[in-house]
Structure formats: structure tokens, C-alpha cells
Amino acid sequence: MSKKILIVEDYEDARSFMKFVVERYGYKVVEAANGQEAVETVKHETPDLILMDLAMPVMDGFTATRIIRNFYGMEEVPIIAVTAYGSSCYDQAIEAGCNYLIDKPINFDTLKPVLNRYLSVC
Fold this sequence. Notes:
This protein is α/β, with parallel strands linked by helices and 122 residues long. The protein has a single domain (4-118), classed as Response regulator (Rossmann fold, 3-Layer(aba) Sandwich), CATH 3.40.50.2300. Helices cover 41% and strands 20% of the residues. It is built from five helices and five strands, in the order βαβαβαβαβα. It has a five-stranded parallel beta sheet, with helices on both faces. Strand 3 (49-53), helix 3 and strand 4 (79-83) form a beta-alpha-beta unit. Helix 2 (35-44) runs parallel beside helix 3. The two termini are 15 Å apart.
């Protein structure tokens, strides 16, 4: 059974491309267009990992991460921050509950090893 990744990204084109690439890696994908959708999605889906954009309308990724971390069973699920703001957001992302930060634009050659590491895939 393949692992499930929740992709949270407000730009539909970016989200669709991320979904395409992540599915090519062999993972199942669920999507959310903002932090509020991510919070609602996590209530009925149990992702094995979340790729969380930090700057989004409706609810940002920092707030969504804090809320999701309080859900039963979501305390240890890896949340990877994805941001165009670079390492300047690193401390804030970690404080919110993210495990790691990836810069945008995403280098898909480095994404796969990160996903594999956090999902314990050999």
C-alpha cells in the first residue's frame, strides 16, 4: 500500500505539478488549496506526510500546522514546509511544528530523498 501525501498549495498549477511528480514517485496524493482546507482534509484523511505551503490565503501554513499538530494521531506525521521565502522562515516553520523546510521553486531531484527519508522508504 502506497503512502499518502497531502499537498497544500494555493496555486493550482504548482499543486497539479507537485501532484504529478509525487505520484510518479509512487505515492498517493490528496490536495488542499489553503490551510483551512488542509485542516478539514486531515479530519477525514490520514496523510503519512504533508507538504505545506506557508504563504496562502484563508489560512497560512503556520497556523494550519499548529492546528493539525493538535489533532490526535497527527503529532508525529512529518510536515514539510514549502516556501519561496527561503531559510528566513525556517525558525518560524519549526516553531509552528514543521519538521523540515524546502525552498521554492522545488528542486524535484532533492524532493524525493526528503520524502523517502521522512517516510522511511528504502
